[in-house]
């Protein structure tokens, strides 16, 4: 097997949310319980930690202050609020302002301000009129270089070169000289610097800054707006060190321009932040330079934070560095999924449409003529990607014990030293280095909170202790915090809830009452209508993980460890989800909860609400139990359940349709004659396949046997009628004649055809057709339940209890013994050989190679392991092939198989 060499483009899929079609978003893969945005200075919001975008963008309605608007608001003596000022400066048209100037305002806001407003702020309004005239032209003209990758640059109808250069400069200079207010005067100077920058008159831009900006001894918002333009012109002249330093000054002294200034620094100088550190003179400059170095760094940020602490422990940017570090720890400690089932490589398989055991014949739709196939590669490319990253970063450790879960849970629940909230030994990004990082950050936070006046550090310290599972210490710190900051108060409230619930080792009825009394808001979800028709802003990822989601996961884990699997399942899933992985122990636990009398209020309102509509709930459970009995060949037991399932409304499936009004979701309606999980089963289920093509119609893939001796086998049956037929066949098979031989063959056919290898593999696993799902998985576990910590990832992992191929083989054995028809015996031997292959696949799944992907001899070891498996298969799982070859080579059945079955032909040539 060849190793996969992953390109950076492929790797980027795992870390980048580039558009709505990206397959994952790293910022949705943890719970974000410690809100990064509680920092007081919102101008640093873009620099919070994100792995999805270049800058953090989840401001949740918070706005980064616009320096320009705040400056204008002050200019107008706060006569306008922020929104009105923004409207006046950015939205109201030049014509509206001219109408105000002429004493005839028509805009509602300007009418409200009155005609006297212009006289009072004449120079400011005149400036805004000029600025609104210039604004459509204020972009730099694109000049294609000889090294341009694309043939054409950005298309724009107008840019700064679209207006007369001399006329514009003269007008701005004249207005500058005529203006008396220094702030407005400086604004005209800013327009001169910007206009020269955008027309690529870089020397003139530098001169304009020196002539029109510097003489006005004001270093406020307008100064740094002009400095930003000066730095751009300097970069155009390749004065990169000076440009970089000036962009750094803009970054330090502006609120809304930090993001653009940061990008400009990166573009100006490849060694930007190191060079800035060399020029930093004041403590503030050094502190900011350290911040930028730490922000860009890929190593432990705490040493740089120590340097920042030495300069100013109350620095707001030190809090930004700390919250980024906390967020990084959260991603390791609090992933939204723990893929810890015994077959974690099956993650994401439900969405596939792969017939894994049909590898040598192409796709499921290809009309190949083989009944027995070779299973060489069981992992899809994306499964290999998942495995690669698990090997690279440290994947889940498989629990090899098969002991009683209730006994295990006591130790895990009370004494496990690993991460929260789940008592687990898996290693999703968590290792000794991560623990050391947490310890170091905690020490730094404890030190800082003693000298800083900001309660932020106390909150951070309490949260780090929460991550370390020291809930008592965390709660004590929270109780001592005195603050009026609403964001801090909200975070403290949330953390108190977290400490209470996560620290509680056992969830009993009394504690459930406590949850409903004190924290019901976290568990009763408020419905929010989404505008799914607005595809531009439509969130394809759904809602981001919330505190409520986290708490539900914690409770699901506790219930699981307490042996209350049904409650654990229903914390994260609906009853109808059982159809996808209907394993018996879980189904029984869910049913026990369903039938539990005297449920607590929490159980009724939070858990039982997920007993969603599946039609008749009793029939739904009876159907699952009946199906399981059928797979165990206990036809009488199956009948008793199917008798209770006659009210079954059909396997609950959902249709999704996009309309002009958004996504339309409707329940699937089964057509007449369509299999719905209970009715309309063809008698071909007793037949044999003429070629292996799961995508073809049953009349093309399957061929009926001679049913003339068994008139009770109807052309179309429901499951109750099917069990009646099987019970009669079973009685007949107890005889010792040819009819008994034929009855045994028909039962064997049904058991094989409804196994993971058969065309009707969907019949007894709650599925509607033979594609998708785990029907063809060969699990490598002997445990009754492969889940370890909870059932949140239930729909992303497949588990259906293994087939017992010996059941079919035993019935075929009787046919072989009683039948005098050599052709019939040859056909039965081939069916037995096919069932024996199923036994081999199960053996192979339990004996997968455990070779590290980084092993330099990976390919050789993988090949040796496959050779060993091939030898075992040929020695122990070719019994009936060998018998067929040695004793039935002269039969027509043998000749037909050797010509039509590709794998059988391969075996015969050996």
TrEMBL record:
<protein>
    <recommendedName>
        <fullName>Tetratricopeptide repeat protein</fullName>
    </recommendedName>
</protein>
<feature type="compositionally biased region" description="Basic and acidic residues">
    <location>
        <begin position="352"/>
        <end position="362"/>
    </location>
</feature>
<feature type="region of interest" description="Disordered">
    <location>
        <begin position="350"/>
        <end position="371"/>
    </location>
</feature>
<feature type="signal peptide">
    <location>
        <begin position="1"/>
        <end position="22"/>
    </location>
</feature>
<feature type="compositionally biased region" description="Basic and acidic residues">
    <location>
        <begin position="402"/>
        <end position="411"/>
    </location>
</feature>
<feature type="region of interest" description="Disordered">
    <location>
        <begin position="397"/>
        <end position="417"/>
    </location>
</feature>
<keyword id="KW-0732">Signal</keyword>
């Amino acid at each position: 097997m060849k190793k996969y060499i992953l390109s950076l483009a492929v790797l980027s899929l795992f870390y980048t949310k580039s558009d709505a079609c990206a397959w994952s978003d790293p910022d949705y893969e943890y719970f974000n319980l410690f809100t990064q945005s509680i920092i007081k200075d919102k101008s640093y919001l873009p620099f919070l930690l994100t792995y999805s975008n270049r800058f953090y963008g989840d401001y949740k309605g918070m706005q980064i202050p616009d320096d320009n608007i705040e400056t204008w608001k002050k200019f107008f003596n706060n006569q306008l609020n922020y929104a009105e000022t923004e409207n006046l400066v950015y939205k109201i048209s030049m014509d509206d302002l001219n109408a105000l100037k002429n004493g005839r305002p028509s805009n509602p806001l300007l009418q409200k301000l009155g005609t006297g407003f212009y006289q009072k702020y004449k120079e400011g309004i005149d400036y805004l009129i000029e600025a609104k005239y210039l604004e459509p032209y204020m972009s730099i003209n694109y000049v294609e270089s000889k090294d341009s990758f694309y043939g054409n640059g950005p298309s724009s109808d107008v840019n700064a070169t679209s207006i007369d250069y001399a006329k514009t400069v003269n007008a701005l200079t004249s207005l500058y000289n005529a203006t008396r207010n220094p702030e407005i005067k400086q604004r005209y100077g800013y327009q001169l610097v910007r206009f020269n920058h955008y027309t690529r008159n870089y020397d003139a831009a530098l001169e304009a800054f020196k002539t029109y900006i510097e003489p006005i001894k004001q270093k406020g918002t307008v100064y740094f707006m002009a400095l930003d333009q000066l730095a751009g012109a300097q970069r155009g002249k390749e004065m990169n060190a000076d440009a970089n330093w000036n962009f750094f000054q803009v970054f330090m002294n502006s609120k809304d321009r930090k993001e653009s200034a940061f990008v400009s620094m990166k573009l100006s100088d490849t060694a930007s932040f190191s060079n800035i550190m060399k020029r930093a003179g004041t403590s503030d400059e050094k502190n900011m330079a350290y911040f930028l170095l730490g922000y860009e760094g890929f190593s432990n940020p705490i040493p740089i934070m120590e340097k920042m602490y030495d300069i100013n422990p109350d620095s707001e940017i030190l809090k930004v560095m700390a919250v980024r570090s906390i967020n990084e720890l959260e991603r390791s400690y609090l992933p939204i999924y723990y893929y810890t089932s015994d077959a974690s490589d099956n993650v994401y398989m439900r969405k596939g449409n792969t017939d894994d055991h049909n590898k040598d014949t192409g796709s499921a739709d290809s009309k190949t003529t083989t009944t027995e196939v070779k299973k060489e590669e069981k992992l899809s490319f994306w499964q290999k990607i998942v495995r690669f990253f698990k090997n690279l970063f440290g994947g889940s450790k498989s629990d090899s014990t098969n002991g009683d879960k209730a006994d295990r849970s006591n130790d895990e629940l009370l004494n496990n030293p690993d991460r929260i909230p789940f008592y687990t030994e898996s290693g999703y990004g968590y290792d000794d280095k991560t623990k050391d990082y947490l310890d170091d950050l905690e020490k730094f936070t404890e030190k800082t909170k003693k000298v800083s006046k900001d309660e932020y550090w106390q909150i951070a310290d309490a949260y780090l202790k929460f991550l370390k599972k020291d809930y008592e210490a965390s709660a004590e710190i929270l109780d001592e915090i005195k603050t009026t900051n609403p964001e801090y108060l909200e975070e403290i409230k949330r953390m108190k809830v977290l400490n209470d619930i996560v620290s509680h080792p056992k969830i009993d009825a009394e504690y459930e009452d406590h949850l409903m009394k004190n924290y019901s808001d976290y568990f009763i979800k408020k419905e929010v209508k989404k505008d799914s028709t607005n595809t531009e802003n439509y969130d394809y990822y759904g809602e981001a993980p919330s505190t409520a989601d986290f708490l539900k996961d914690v409770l699901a884990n506790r219930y699981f460890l307490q042996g209350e699997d049904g409650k654990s399942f229903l914390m994260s899933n609906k009853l109808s989800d059982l159809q996808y992985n209907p394993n018996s122990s879980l189904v029984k636990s869910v049913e026990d909860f369903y039938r539990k009398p005297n449920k607590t209020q929490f159980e009724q309102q939070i858990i039982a609400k997920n007993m969603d509509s599946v039609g008749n709930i009793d029939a739904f459970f009876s159907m699952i139990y009946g199906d399981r009995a059928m797979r165990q060949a206990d036809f009488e037991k199956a009948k008793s359940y199917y008798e209770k399932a006659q009210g079954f409304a059909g396997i609950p499936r959902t249709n999704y349709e996009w309309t002009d009004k958004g996504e339309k979701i409707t329940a699937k309606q089964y057509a007449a004659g369509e299999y719905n999980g209970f009715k309309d089963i063809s008698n071909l289920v007793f037949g044999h396949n003429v070629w292996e093509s799961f995508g073809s119609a049953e009349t093309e893939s399957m061929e009926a046997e001679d049913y003339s001796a068994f008139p009770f086998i109807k052309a179309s049956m429901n499951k109750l009628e099917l069990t009646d037929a099987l019970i009669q066949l079973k009685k007949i098979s107890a005889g010792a004649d040819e009819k008994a031989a034929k009855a045994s063959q028909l039962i064997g056919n049904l058991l094989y055809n409804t196994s993971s290898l058969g065309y009707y593999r969907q019949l007894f696993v709650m599925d509607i057709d033979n594609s998708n799902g785990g029907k063809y998985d060969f699990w490598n576990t002997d445990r009754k339940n492969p889940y370890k910590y909870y059932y949140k990832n239930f729909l992303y992992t497949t588990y259906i209890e293994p087939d017992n191929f010996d059941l079919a083989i035993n019935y075929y054995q009787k046919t072989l013994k009683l039948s005098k028809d050599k052709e019939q015996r040859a056909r039965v031997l081939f069916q037995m050989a096919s069932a024996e292959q199923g036994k081999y696949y199960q053996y192979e799944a339990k004996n997968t190679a455990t070779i590290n992907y980084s092993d330099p001899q990976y390919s050789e070891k993988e090949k040796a392991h496959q050779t060993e498996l091939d030898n075992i298969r040929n020695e122990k799982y070719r019994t009936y092939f060998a018998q067929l070859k040695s004793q039935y080579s002269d039969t027509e059945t043998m000749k037909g198989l050797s010509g039509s079955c590709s794998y059988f032909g391969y075996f015969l040539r050996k």
